[in-house]
Amino acid sequence: MPMHKIEPDGDTLSMLARLFVIDGRIRKGDYPSQNDLAKLCCVSQKTIYRDLQYLQFSIGAPLAYDSSEKGWYYEDKGFFLPAQFASKHELQALLVLGEVEFGAAVKRALRDVTGPDRLRDNPLLRSRIVTDRAGKDASAGERVAALQQIVTDAAALGPTPADRKLARVLYRAYLSPAPTLERAAEVLDLPSSTFRRLLTTAVARVVDTLWHRELES
Q1: Does 147 map to a domain?
Q2: pTM of the model
């Protein structure tokens, strides 16, 4: 296939961050559509189209479209994006997530902590805290396992009675979840409104704890 040089669209670092997210989703093997990728990256389908072109024609990613699955996949599953094009400086920059993106990723990780497959495209996999725990040469599976442990440990909060109460709420909501939040509230003998208020507080505590660890890494 001829290699046509495609210029990056928009801010380069933002594009590089999107490419890592797109790569992670395609690597899952569930044939994401252009619309799926646009929603995941919070950009337009036109932007994703440009990103896919850049991946395929400028980087040489073995991208292919499966018309029966209506989505994208890698023809060569051994393709690894960072080794193909990112400099050490670019990789270091990508490891640092912004505070808003980091907080959203922590909330996603809490919701998905019992499902490793759902964590495979979480942005926290490129965070410093995961790299520190798993090691810089860790496989995708090792990074997912490290993220699970980090989130589980953080959800324990602290030793005070107030911390333990919040930790129980997190446990019933995410670590050993009841079928619904209403049922989780019943198990803890709490009004639903109180449970949700405590859950919001507990999640914010986890986000804050992990964000400060990220900054100190």
Answers
A1: yes
A2: 0.57
